[in-house]
Amino acid sequence: MCGLALFGVFGDPAGGRAKAPGAEWAIAIAILAVVCAVLLLFGGRGGLSVRAAVYGTIAGILFGLSAALTKPTIEYLHAGSAHASAAWVAREPAEDEAPTIEQNAPE
Question: Average pLDDT, whole number, for the chain?
Answer without folding.
Answer: 75
